[in-house]
């Protein structure tokens, strides 16, 4: 499990460093609020970890899109809203970095709870 969390953290940091631009802009309507986005990203990361774990165990019964749809439903958002919001936050690298620090902290707390 520790290796899995390390991979998630590694993915998150690479994502932040590679995919974001330097422009600053006002938050447009339809963008998910920062706190909610942190919670959604945390659940998306956990879902991706579950998918990787299932595939590593050669469990082909998993429906990836269904799992992601459950996350969107739980947070009362659509995949399009999530993608648009993520795209927006990627244009604000300092803000996104702070968000991912909170995501990593949340994942670490969840790891401690499950030990």
Main pleated-sheet profile: none
Strand coverage percent: under 5%
Report low-confidence residues grouped into runs of 5 or more: none
Count of domain modules: 1
| Number of beta-strand segments | 0
Order of helices and strands: HHHHH
Describe the structure.
The structure is a single chain. This protein has 115 residues and is mainly alpha-helical. It has one domain (2-113). Helix content is 74%, strand content 0%. It has helices at residues 2-19, 34-56, 64-74, 79-90, 93-113. α2 (34-56) packs antiparallel against α3 and α2 (34-56) packs across α5. The model has no long low-confidence stretch (mean pLDDT 82).
What's the helix and strand layout?
Blueprint: H1 2-19, H2 34-56, H3 64-74, H4 79-90, H5 93-113
Helix pairs in contact: 1-5, 2-3, 2-5
List keywords for this structure.
about 75% helix; single chain; about 0% strand; mainly alpha; about 120 residues
Structure at a glance:
The chain has 115 residues and is mainly alpha-helical. Helix content is 74%, strand content 0%. The chain has one domain.
């Amino acid at each position: 499990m520790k290796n899995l969390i390390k991979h998630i953290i590694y993915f998150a940091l690479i994502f932040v460093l590679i995919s974001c631009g330097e422009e600053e802009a006002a938050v447009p309507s339809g963008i998910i609020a920062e706190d909610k986005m942190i919670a959604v990203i945390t659940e998306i990361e956990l879902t991706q970890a579950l998918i990787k774990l299932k595939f590593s165990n050669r469990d082909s019964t998993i429906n990836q899109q269904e799992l992601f749809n459950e996350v969107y439903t739980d947070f009362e958002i659509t995949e399009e809203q999530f993608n648009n919001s993520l795209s927006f936050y990627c244009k604000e690298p300092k803000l996104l970095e702070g968000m991912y620090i909170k995501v990593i902290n949340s994942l670490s707390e969840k790891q401690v709870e499950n030990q």
